[in-house]
## 1
Amino acid sequence: MSPSGKPCQLVVCRGCCCGTKKKRPGVDHKGQLERLSGFEDHEGRRVPVRVSKCLGICFKANVVVVQPSAQGRAGGGRPVWLGEFTEDRLIDDLDDWIFEGGPGIAPLPDSLEPHLTSKNAKKPKKAKLGKKAKKAAAEADGATRKGADEARPGGEKGKKKKKAKKAKKAEKSAKAEKKAKNT
Ligand code: FES
């Protein structure tokens, strides 16, 4: 096949979260970048890799964007955003896909499908608590607060403690008085 314009390109996010052990522990981020930088297409051209700052969807770290080749773009291919790109097997599948032509030329491998995302992806909201769960949480919170209040110096437990201390003091002074009288 004759050379046909620009090859596919990769944009690999290495911002505040992508490529960090803090966000994605247990991933060889450096090794991943090295492997992504070694891709070639079916025309034997090296696939350029651009390392980018945060692409704005950190909850999907690590993020990789596949830009179509000129031929792929002419065939309707558009940039493909992949998120949670952490497993080694995904690198192999991405390599194969780009070798076959990438966006606009070859179909996306099944294994990459669950990783499809976009620059407009929205962080999923935390699940809302139902009425019952809310009530239970409020009750548990109330019980904790009550316990804390009682333990406070002005609280129920604090008052009892103070009373006991006072009684002990009175007993002590009475003993001292008695002793003084006897001497
Ligand atoms: S660091 Fe990659 S999306 Fe923010």
Note: The first helix runs from residue 29 to 36.
## 2
Amino acid sequence: MLTAILSPRKTLKKAILCPKCGNEMDEMQSNKQDLALKRATFGIFNAVRFLCYGCFWEERKIRNKVERRNGM
Ligand SMILES: [Zn+2]
């Protein structure tokens, strides 16, 4: 499968599946908008982008640093 060749194996990470075709999505680098959000919220909120290599669907997820810390 094409996806398996393009994306490195991330067995420890929870896989994000594409809502359109069900393919495993790959994490992308944050862009300026994401960095602006992080700066505006003093690093509490962090946006992470995911890309599907099957249909090139892009998804943005917002992570809350504080929530994550309390959960651990
Ligand atoms: Zn897809």
Note: The helical segments are 2-6, 32-40, 65-71.
## 3
Amino acid sequence: MDTNRRRLLCSAATVAAGFWGLGLTGLLPAFAQGTGGEIFTNSIGMEFVPIPAGRFLMGSRSSDREARDFEKPQHEVTISRPFLLGRYEVTQAQWESVLGENPYSRDRSNPYYNLPGMAERITRPDHPATVSWNDAQEFIAALNAREGGAFYRLPTEAEWEYAARAGTTTAYSFGDDAADLDRHAWYGGDFNSGSSHPVGQKAPNPWGLYDIHGNAWEWVQDWFDPDYYARSPAAPQ
Ligand SMILES: [Ca+2]
């Protein structure tokens, strides 16, 4: 999958609606190894998909003119331990069940949040929670406290991209043909029909993860660093 296209798809939703979703939440590897390869459902009904250890090529091909420089060079990354990744983007209802408030009630500098009708649309229970990175950390801390251990964190960018590609090397996890996008992603042109959309309505990727392309963006644990790909470790911990 071409990461630049991945970002463009996601950014189409983001540019249109200003959404930084708290997307896929990772579970720590030690916890993942105890699940026997089954989908794990936690105390508030969040489902997590087991992701095997493995290796993949991270980043964009040097020949890809659409990719930005910070997505190159493409390099092999080893995911040394299995982990669990959220099957869906975290929903508004899940957020409220943990923190007792709607994330929309928080201060927002993004003007899209103040567009007419936006509040009603993006606070629907089955839509993705759209929050800041710091908000995401607060949610994860509260969820960990509730479940009695440090089980949850955001995935690293390497973990996210590895799971998003799901063993594929094509431009998208479903192949190279952008004409198939509508079956797999809410993006760009969907803004006027409702900005974000209920999670899990489009086809999942080969490993059973939904809304990898489109709908809300997902946060990762790492801070953005334009030089990251050029010097990232081959086996991040
Ligand atoms: Ca998404």
Note: Strands lie at 26-27, 40-41, 47-51, 54-58, 75-79, 83-86, 152-153.
